[in-house]
Amino acid sequence: MHNNLNASIRLRKFLHKPLLSMMKSTRNFDLKLLDEENLKKSIDSAIYVVNHTNSHDIPVASEVIAKHHYVLLGKQPLKSIDRIAFCLNGVIWVDRKSKASKAEAKRIMVEHLKHRTNVLMFPEGTWNRSPNKIMQPLYWGVIDIAKECNAPVVPIILEYTKEICYAKIGLPIYIESSSDKKQAIDYLQNTMAAMRYELWEMLPRLHRKEIETDYFDKILQHDVEEYPKLNLEYETSVVRKEYEESKNTFAHLGNIKPSLQSAFLFNKRLI
Predict the structure, then answer these.
(1) Which residues of 174-210 are buried (b: 16+ CB within 10 A; e: fewer)?
(2) What does DSSP assign to residue 248?
(3) What interhelical angle do 57-65 and 2-25 show, nearest 10?
(4) What angle do CA 132, 133, 136 make, to 5 degrees?
(5) Angle between helix 2-25 and 80-89 (nearest 10)
(6) Are 148 and 42 within 8 A, CB to CB?
(7) DSSP string, 57-73
(8) What letters, b where the CB count within 10 A reaches 16 and e where it falls short, cover 137-160?
């Protein structure tokens, strides 16, 4: 089994360069790398995590990383050419609504990382179409995988203008096996949000009065039209839900006067 996996990795490394050239040829905007030297600080296998906003993200992220990597990809309708390219390059499929599928995808990623290859994933789980969230909540799986493999997590932020895509590469993050999972995912999310904000700060600023009221809707419509196979309703449904800590969830009980009628509200086991 190990020999078969090693052979598969060697074949996909061989195919990666021509596939990368094909991806570059379809790009109709410039690509500018920021802090590119951080890519060289992960000599061994790594988990590359990227923010997700449109259909260009996977080929652009692959171009930024350059060296071969497997792509974690949610099962979804794809153009035939894209599906073929992913399979040739190396893809790990996951049904984002299935716990069993997510567990199996995690197992495969761990196995590949232990064979000294790389993984590209988008921990937001889908496109971030929020007009006011810098980052959507991240799925926790990246932390479990990093712990088990002792592989660094390399954050990459992509930001697009009409003519240029800016790619900002962060320093590798090492997750200690004893790290608290929530603290680790919060740190990763905050790091990626800060990186994206830093990119925004360097771009030309617009005054609110210069922005049309339907500006964001037009961007969303444009991105969807670029990839008509996208099921936007489904993609919206797989955004990770955020849950508050229990102390915040039950804070309102302090404002309720206990009585026979309200006693059931104080039974936290109902939640």
Answers:
(1) ebeeeeeeeebbebbbebbeebbeebeeeeeeeeeee
(2) H
(3) 110
(4) 150
(5) 130
(6) no
(7) HHHHHHHHH-S--EEEE
(8) bbbebbbbbbbbbebbbbbbbbbb
Q: Quick check: 106 and 144 in contact, CB under 8 A?
A: yes
DSSP lists the bridge partners of residue 158 as 167
> What ranges in 46-161 are assigned the alpha helix state H?
57-65, 80-89, 99-114, 141-149
Question: Nearest CA to 244 among 190, 182, 179?
Answer: 182
Q: Are 157 and 192 in contact (CB under 8 A)?
A: yes
Classify the C-alpha dihedral 249-254-258-262 as positive or negative: negative
| 3-state DSSP percent of the chain in helix, strand and coil, to 5 | 50, 15, 40
Dist. CA 189–CA 210, nearest whole Å: 30
Please name the amino acid found at residue 54. N
What token pair was written down for 149? 């493999």
Tokens 């073929």 sit at which residue? 84
Structure token digits, residue 14:
């061989």
Q: Which tens digit of pLDDT belongs to each residue from 48-93?
A: 999 999 999 999 999 999 999 999 999 888 999 999 999 999 999 9
**Amino acid letter for position 71:** V
| pTM of the predicted structure, to 2 decimals | 0.85
Q: In the structure, what pLDDT confidence band is assigned to residue 212 with cuts at 50, 70 and 90?
A: confident
Please give the mean pLDDT across all residues of the chain.
Answer: 88
